[in-house]
Amino acid sequence: AVERSDDQQLIGCAGYWEPYGWPATELAFWFLHEAYLEDHAFEAVHAVLRRAGEYPNIARIVSFIAPGNDLARELAENAGASLIGTVDLFDFGAHCEYVFPGPPTDVPVTG
To answer: Of all helices (H) and strands (E), which one includes residue 87?
Structure first.
């Protein structure tokens, strides 16, 4: 969970997950619109990326983002991910597949 520090308001969520059948470990996230605009989303995604080395079973990190979710796509790109194509995520439909630099310990920390 991601909370604003001044009032502890829930503004989003970010973390790793890889459900059965998923093509890779995903850095999954969702945020309120304001969190993108105030850089809280960027800070949260980078905090998750910095912890990747703690999970030795992660071979690569991706984010699967709905094609129309421009704020999430921009966030992934600003966090160092590159669009590599689309993937069909079962009942979720086609999503843009972004891959972060790897191995996970090589993820650049900028801000």
So the answer is: strand 82-88
Alpha-carbon separation of residue 71 from 48, 85, 95, 106 (angstroms): 18, 18, 14, 24
Q: Which two tokens stand for residue 35?
A: 């969190």
Euclidean distance between CA atoms 97 and 6, whole angstroms: 34
**8 Å CB contact between 29 and 49:** no
pLDDT mean over 22-26: 88
User: What is the per-residue pLDDT for 16?
Assistant: 94
Phi/psi at 46 (nearest 5 deg)? -65, -35
Contact assessment for residue 98 and residue 82, using Cβ atoms and an 8 Å cutoff = yes
How much of the chain, in percent, has pLDDT values that exceed 90? 63
Report DSSP state, residue 15.
Answer: E
pLDDT in tens, 87-106: 998 888 999 999 998 755 55
